[in-house]
Amino acid sequence: MAEFVCKLGTDAGRVLTQTEQARSEEELRQRLRAQGYLVFSIRPKDLLSMQIRASRPGKIRPDDFLIFNQQFLTLSKSGLPLQKSLELLAQQSQSEALRRAIEEVRDKVRAGALLSEAFESTGSFPKIYCAAVRAGERSGSLDRVLTQYVTYQKQTRTFRKKFLSALIYPAFLMVFLGGLIVFVITFIVPRFAELYADLGVELPALTTFVITFAMGIKRLSGLILIALVALALLVRMALRSSRTRLGWERLKIRVPLVGKLLLKFSVAEFARTLATLLQGGIPIVAALETAKDSVTSPLLARAIAQAQREVAGGRALSSSLRLSGFFPPIALDMMEVGETTGAMSGMLEALAEFFEEDVNIDLATLVALVDPIMIAAIAVAVAFVLVAFYLPLFSMAAKVQ
């Protein structure tokens, strides 16, 4: 008998985590479903099984997953049997990771598992997707749920691409500035230093400072590189701690301009995710559980977990989220209106669109401020170097005259 850690949902909307014994994962799933539980996940308790799961194929790219869902929806609407649909999708997939995941899902469905359970057991598909498919199976409206999820994918993909594309030019300017500084220190300064040493020119203080600083950096470049790599590794190790990640998230939120932008991005992500889950017919407590595991901000995930406990105790969602202090007042007010009118999922969609548009406007404004600053920094760096190295030439010209 093996031990498994199970995350379960009850008819009352509670989410439980408990350890069960069974001969296999499939047997345990059938037993828990017969007892009336909603099975979110089942994972082996022993370390070896967890390592085997971690060694599975790499992460599925979002674009490949979107194409898969569009094709899956088309085949589902056509009335093709599920196993045949999965077989065709596996054959057509251009992604090795996605193909292996689909084949694993196909084999589990063939063995008698539910589609949502097969998706979840691979560990390769988003939790929100598994929850949406589970809701579609329970309500008998898988096509409608898949349509909603494809729409959700397209909207979140478009929003993220807009967000990232707006950061490309500032990032390019930063890389260019860094490359310019490295080029000056590595090639320009040593040649001017050799030239002035051969000429025996008395150097101004500014030129002496630049040469001394640049040559010192060049001599210590190996140690500096090792220190940067070590720092990166230490930061990566530190960010594995949940406490460190929360502290870093709090710090980012407090940064002027950038903090508000990240906060709005997180709220839009949460609202879009929760709206999709509620539209799929998932109960609010279970939807919050899935949304908590789907958002990228650990601070937001902590706020959702706190709200989930309050909602399970009978409190309204808007007032539960208000206790966390994370959400802007306008977001909470819109959710409260949605609860009052009984149109929560629609209000969450409107909230997501509102904050996504707000993020786009703020991001465009921020980029408009950053671009001139970066260009000015490049101009100042170039001018500083030129002045420092041409001052001795001006002094020599004055002496000749």
Which structural traits does this protein have?
Ubiquitin-like (UB roll), 401 residues, Receptor-associated Protein, 18 helices, mainly alpha, 3 domains
Explain this structure.
The chain has helices spanning 25-34, 47-54, 62-77, 82-92, 96-110, 115-122, 127-139, 142-165, 168-199, 205-219, 221-238, 242-254, 258-279, 284-294, 298-312, 317-324, 329-341, 344-400; strands spanning 2-9, 15-22, 38-44. The protein has 401 residues and is mainly alpha-helical. It folds into three domains: 2-54, Roll (Ubiquitin-like (UB roll)); 62-159, Receptor-associated Protein (Up-down Bundle), CATH 1.20.81; 166-401, Up-down Bundle (Receptor-associated Protein). The termini are far apart. The model is unreliable at 47-57 (pLDDT under 50).
How are the SSEs ordered, and which strands pair?
Blueprint: E1 2-9, E2 15-22, H1 25-34, E3 38-44, H2 47-54, H3 62-77, H4 82-92, H5 96-110, H6 115-122, H7 127-139, H8 142-165, H9 168-199, H10 205-219, H11 221-238, H12 242-254, H13 258-279, H14 284-294, H15 298-312, H16 317-324, H17 329-341, H18 344-400
Antiparallel strand pairs: 1-2, 1-3
**Which of globular, elongated, flat, extended, rod-shaped describes the shape?**
elongated
Q: Report the count of strand segments.
A: 3
Number of domain units: 3
Radius of gyration: 29 Å
Helix content: over 70%
What is the CATH homology-level superfamily of the largest domain?
Type II secretion system (T2SS), domain F
Classification by helices and strands: mainly alpha
CATH top level of the largest domain?
Mainly Alpha
From the coordinates shown, what is the CATH architecture of the largest domain?
Up-down Bundle
Q: What is the strand content?
A: 5-15%
Strand order of the largest sheet: 2-1-3
| Major sheet attributes | 3 strands, antiparallel
SSE string, helix = H, strand = E? EEHEHHHHHHHHHHHHHHHHH
CATH topology title of the largest domain: Receptor-associated Protein
